Amino acid sequence: MRVNAAENATPAGPADRPAFLSTRVSEARRYFLNLTPRSVPGLEVVCGGVERCQPDYVIERTRFPYCAIEYVAQGEGELRLGGRAFRLRPGVAFAYRPGVSHAIRTSAQSPMLKYYVDFVGREANRLLAASPLGRWDAVQVSAPSELIELFESLQRNGEAENRFTGRICATLVALIILKVSERAMDFGAAESRALPTYERVRRHIEEHYPRLKTVEEIARACHVNAAYLCRLFQRFDHRSPYQFLLRLKMNRAAGLLLDGGLMVKEVSAELNFADPYHFSRAFKRVYGVSPDRFVKLGKRHGQPPA
Fold first, then answer.
1. Alpha-carbon distance 260 to 263, whole Å?
2. In this structure, are 154 and 196 located in the same domain?
3. Using CA atoms, how far apart are residues 31 and 33, in angstroms rounded to an integer?
4. For residues 197 and 203, what is the distance between their CA atoms, to the nearest angstrom?
5. Domain boundary residue, one of 164, 184, 204
6. Which residues does 7 contact at the CB level (< 8 Å), separation at least 6?
7. What is the pTM of this model?
8. Is residue 140 domain-resident?
9. Do residue 263 and residue 177 come from a single domain?
C-alpha cells in the first residue's frame, strides 16, 4: 500500500501541538480526541497520526502520560526501550506506557515514516500485557500492509469527529494490538531473504487468485520450490499457501453468489475450478454449507451466514 504523509499535512507549529510531540518532522497528519482523559475501565484514544521524520529526529523520554504504539512504514532508525536497543525498519511495531523509558532516533540517510497512537484505559493495559508489545520489545510483523491499512483507517476515523469516532478508534486500536499479535515473528527472521520472498508470493496470490489452482503453479510463477513455499507460509502465516488461496477464492465466491447473482457453475468457472462439483465441495469445506444453501440462508436473513 502506498503511504502519502503529505496528504492533509499540517505544519503543526509550536502553538498547534502538545509539548510531547516532536518538532523535527517534515510532514504530518494528526488527530486529537481527548488530551486530558480520565482513568477509564476500557480503552480511550487520546491522539495519533503519521509523521515523516527529519534527518535529525530524536525523541528521548523517561516519562510519558499515555500508552502508545508506534509503527514504522518506511525508513530506518534506532530504538532504546526499557534499556534495550533495537533496530527500526519497515514492518516494526513497538509500544510503551508510563514508566517505560524510550529513545527513538531516525537514520539521517533513510528518515522514517511512522504511525503512532496514544491511548489510556485499564483494558488498554490488559491488551498490551497479553501481546508481544507488552514485553516492551520491537516486534516485526509478517504482513506490513495489513498494519498500514488499520492505521490508515484509524487516521480517517480520528479525523472524522462525530459521535462514533471515539468508539471506532478504540476498536481499531484493539484490532491493531491483535493484528500485531497474529503477525508477530522472530525479529531476526526478517534479516534473511525469507520474509521478502514470502511477501512477494503473497502479493502474487492476492493479485492472481481467481486463475490460480495449485501450490505448484504458484511456486513456478514465483520461481521458488513448492516445498519451500509451504514452509514459508507455515513460518510467516501459520497456514498453507493453498489454504490462503482457497480463502481468497471462497470470499470472492460468496460475493458473486449473493451480490452478483451468479449461478454455481458460473462462479466455478470464474474462479477456475475444474467443475461445479469440485467448487461446491471446496465451498462447503470452508463455510460448512453448500453454495445453494448459502444463497438461501443469505436471502432469508439478508446477509451471509456466520
1. 9
2. no
3. 7
4. 10
5. 184
6. 29
7. 0.69
8. yes
9. no
d(Cα 77, Cα 87) in Å, to the nearest integer?
6
Please give the pLDDT value at position 104.
97
In which residue are the cell numbers 491522539 written? 47
* 42, part of any domain: yes
d(CA 222, CA 62): 47
Q: Examine the pLDDT at 243 and tell me if it is beyond 60.
A: yes
**Average pLDDT, integer, range 64-76:** 94
Which cell goes with 287?
463455510
- Residues in a beta bridge with 28: 51
Closest CA to 239 of 194, 183, 197: 183
For the chain, the straight-line distance linking the first and the last C-alpha, in angstroms and rounded, comes to: 29
Among the listed residues 71, 158, 160, 157, the one whose alpha carbon sits nearest the alpha carbon of residue 116: 71
Give the count of beta carbons closer than 10 Å to the beta carbon of residue 19: 5
Range of the domain at 242: 192-301
Calculate the average pLDDT of the chain: 87
CA nearest neighbour of 91 among 4, 196, 169, 174:
196
Which of 177, 197, 292 has the alpha carbon at shortest distance from 237?
197
Specify whether 164 is located in the same domain as 200: no
Interval 174-190: pLDDT, tens: 999 999 998 887 666 55
The reply to whether 176 and 33 lie within a common domain is yes
Residue 165 corresponds to which amino acid?
T
3-class DSSP state of 29:
strand
The owner of cell 500508552 is 67
Q: Where are the alpha helices (DSSP H) in 59-135?
A: 122-129
CB 114 within 8 A of CB 73: yes
The torsion region of residue 35 among left (phi > 0), alpha (psi -120 to 50) and beta comes to alpha
Q: Give the Cα separation of 50 and 42 in Å (integer).
A: 24
Whether 223 is in a domain gets the answer yes
